[in-house]
Amino acid sequence: MTTAISVKNLGKQYRIGAAETKFRYNMLRDVIVDTVYAPVRLAKALVGKLERRANQNFVWALDDVSFDLEEGKVLGIVGRNGAGKSTLLKILSRITDPTRGTVSVRGRVGSLLEVGTGFHPELTGRENIYMNGAILGMKRAEIDRKFDEIVDFSEVATFIDTPVKRYSSGMYLRLAFAVAAHLEPEILVVDEVLAVGDAEFQRKCLGKMGDVAQQGRTVLFVSHNMSAILRLTQEAIVLNKGKLVMRAPTQQAVDFYLSSGQAQAGERAWDADDVPAASAPFTPIRLTVKDGRGKVVDTIRSTEPVTLEFEYRLDAPVTGLRIGIYVSTMRGEYVLTSFDTDDADHFEKYAVRNTGYYISRATLPADIFNEGRYSVGVNASSFGVRRYFMDENALAFNVDISGAPGTQWPEPRVGPIRPRLEWKIEKIGE
Amino acid sequence: MSQITKTTHEPTTIYIKPSHGLAALNLRDLWVYRELVFFMVWRDVKVKYKQTILGMAWAVIQPVMNMLIFTFVFDRVAKLATDGIPYEIFSFTALLPWGLFVTALNQGSRSLVAHNNMVTKIYFPRIILPMSSVFAGLVDFAIALVILVGLMFYFHVTPAWNLLWTLPFFVLLAIITALGVALWLSAINVKYRDVNQALPFLTQFWFFATPVAYSFSNLPENFQLLLSFNPMTGVVNGFRWALLGAGNGPDAALWVSVAISVLILVTGLYYFRSTERTFADTI
After folding, report:
1. C-alpha distance from B18 to closest chain A C-alpha (Å)
2. If one looks up domain A267-400 in CATH, what number appears?
3. Tens digits of per-residue pLDDT, A44-70?
4. Domain presence at residue B19
5. DSSP string for residues in chain B
6. N or C: which end of chain B has fewer CB within 10 A?
7. Interface test with A, best of B4, B8, B12, B14 (most A CBs within 10 A)
8. Is the ipTM of this complex over 0.90?
């Protein structure tokens, strides 16, 4: 077998912390101060890196990653947000350069990092197919040849001469994916595109990716959707904080990932080096999922209330701080968003939070979630002023539905929520 | 385009590694992506006049309106000398290449930031963005050229036959200058958006430093010398010479213009290329 991708000691360093002081034009005072210092800043920028180096933090988004992939293999890549998955894909698709290390890639790399890039709302579906195809590196003749197939796949044939700004978001997406899916690259890079689109379309996309693999092409597949990873790949690598920590058959890799505390079982704690410098004065400490008896759990029962506790520290008083939680499905659909100062009384009482340690605790009532795995995100911000911290995927929990409404029928129910509704049945006639 | 690319051909191996310093211009990739340049130009032209009532007519209206305003201000009011040429056609011959240059410069300099979603999501030679923005201006230029022909008939101006090869040369000079400056500014704009703010001022300054509204030959000699360092002076003088027979024709000053614009282009290419690898991270 020939090697399609060979990655050696790959590293990518990002500079962080330089940007955070830049866009803080919220107060007139800032604007004035900023204007006065403009000539100084210009001089500094021209003189060079002297001063900038000092207050910059560097972070290795990828650190010494090496692996080879044979032609025709499908490799899954799993890891938490910020583990380096996207950076790896960006380097492989030549969007950004590595800081060190080398990659050799045999053949054309097709990237589905973002479908529909280069789509112009004013152009028709037909025109956008050509445009987008050219951006993805297809020749005109190649697009001509595949045009009908692309239109068929996208199911927008009747609107092909309508500007895409009149399309529904679903149509837009189908068309965009159809072009990308027909690129026929030797190596296909797929990142989380399946989080969008309806279930039917997702099935179609997964099918197409399966075909690609069948044709002996090499596929790299990144997803938070473990079932998709399990279905589509035989082998996977696990990334954690930029390092490759495991390469194994997919089942084994997913098990490792889910149990290694990366996917966090009921609790997520932040180390000092997990927290970006930009979030000061806010420091997250711990997020936990607790059941009705206050026990930290990975799996909750849908029939019991569940408590989400977020512990954090403030190193300086913060005005108007609000802690938000987001619950979403593993497919990335949001189920709910809530803030600790949603209540007007709370909002007034905690107008300013002083320096110190805090816990914001939310109790979600029983009978909300359907069966499945959910992801909890947290966020700390002052509305309209600044976002201090955000982790969209802080931890995940499972929901067990035994005893939930309708469980007498052993069939899965669609939809992320499974509330206990009050039904009345009335007889209104003979 | 007649060549059929077989999907079964032997794939080429690409090596990705950190690039340092004098990275060679990736001309091979530019060749592979040549059709994208065409598509980008085609898209820019197509989209530019969408949802306008007057459509392509705007390509004519803009220079004609400019000409009328200039004629009123600089001819009827200020009574500038124009070497005996009717002011309408005197200004229009200069407005043509100037319009081409300004559109190219402005669109080109903003091109990377305007297409930041492409830059951060997909690989292609980045130079295609400023390049196609610059070329897109040629379409408007061609349309306005038709008006010029009409004006020349109206004012009974017969150009010399050598314009068939001199005019394209001056168009090329305008394009090279615009592309060179656009490469510099678009690459700087990725990191410092100050470029967006500075562009209108730069455009205005450059306009007055180019003999569009006034005649080069009526300037004091030391001003003439100063202005010859502006490549657009060479372009505008060249247009007037080729079309109207005004001025001395190509002289040493023109070669200074050519040398300067080539210098801007070469340094621009180098600067663009050396910052290109961080575009996706800093944009």
Report:
1. 5
2. 2.70.50.60
3. 666 655 445 545 577 888 999 999 998
4. no
5. --SPPPTTSPPPEEEE----SSPPP-HHHHHHTHHHHHHHHHHHHHHHTTT-SSGGGHHHHHHHHHHHHHIIIIIIIS----TTS-HHHHHHHHHHHHHHHHHHHHHHHHHHHHTHHHHHH--S-TTHHHHHHHHHHHHHHHHHHHHHHHHHHHTT----TTHHHHHHHHHHHHHHHHHHHHHHHHHHHHH-THHHHHHHHHHHHHHHTTTTSS-GGGS-HHHHHHHTTSHHHHHHHHHHHHHH--S--S-HHHHHHHHHHHHHHHHHHHHHHHHHTTHHHH-
6. N
7. B14
8. no
